[in-house]
Amino acid sequence: MNTASLGPQRIVCLTEETTEWLYLLGQEHRIVGISGYTVRPRRARDEKPKVSAFLNAKIDKILALQPDCVFGFSDLQADIAAQLIRAGVQVTVFNQRSVEEILTMLYQVAAMVGCAEQGLAWIEGTRARLDGIRSAVQALQAAGRRRPRVFFEEWDEPHISAIRWVSELMDIAGGDDVFPELARMPLGKDRIIADGADIVGRNPDIVVGSWCGKKFRPERVAARAGWQDVNAVKHGQLFEIKSADILQPGPAALTDGVAQMHRIVTQWMVQHG
After folding, report:
1. pTM given for the model
2. Range of 190's domain?
């Protein structure tokens, strides 16, 4: 059976992860509109019309593209989805929050565009790479190296800690999330740390910032009141991972995001652990 004719042919992607995934699958010809925040792959910005931000979208522009499916992410895009559904558009909104849920979403999208086998092969390869990272961390621990305590800051004012998939990737990469109890909270407002002293009290060895597209400023972190005695500040362990690489719940986080986290953590384990 020719699977090329199956599934949606004119797709609008309201967030970056489905755009990147369709490109990786060689199905970019199906995409007719993307999010204005898309930076992966870079060529998508030049090739596809930008029709949405994150919390809002140009509904008229989307409808003019005559999509037969729109992919969205989470309850935060529920209002956009509702408007499109009322206009008669098929909408699929994913709500992946963990590594396993990301992999499940990727398989579902691949199956929808007739690329189930290709998608599964990528997923199995990704699982193998993640297992390889785990093994490398275990080898360092077996050699007597300690895992660092890591504070991942998703936003700076107020402080917001790591979402679940980031916390899980941190664990795979060899770091221990200093706020593991907050990671399962799906909404940013439920991961707010109102008192910076709570972060200081947990004394992270590493601080990783990914300020939702805003440039991370390590000098500002180091200058925070009471932070001078935090291990991460004392030893200059303040790093940025770009939001597009780690806060995108799709291919980026499972490849470049976790790889960057692993390099940061491994360097600390070798030098300080």
Report:
1. 0.95
2. 144-271
Reference 251, options 83, 106, 148; nearest CA is 106
Residue whose structure tokens are 């709570």: 198
What are the two backbone dihedrals, phi and then psi, of residue 208, each rounded to the nearest 5 degrees? -115, 125
101 and 200 in one domain? Answer: no
**Distance between CA 44 and CA 28 in Å, rounded?**
9
Q: Which residues have a Cβ under 8 Å from the Cβ of 225 and sit 6 or more positions away?
A: 196
Q: Which pLDDT belongs to residue 106? A: 98
CATH number at residue 43: 3.40.50.1980
104: which residues sit within 8 A by CB, 6+ positions away?
96
Closest CA to 71 of 100, 105, 43: 105
CA distances, 3 to each of 6, 27, 110, 254 (Å)? 5, 12, 11, 27
Residue 202 domain flag:
yes
Q: What digits encode the pLDDT tens for the residues 64-106?
A: 999 999 999 999 999 999 999 999 999 999 999 999 999 999 9
- Indicate whether 100 and 17 sit together in one domain: yes
81 shares its domain with 197: no
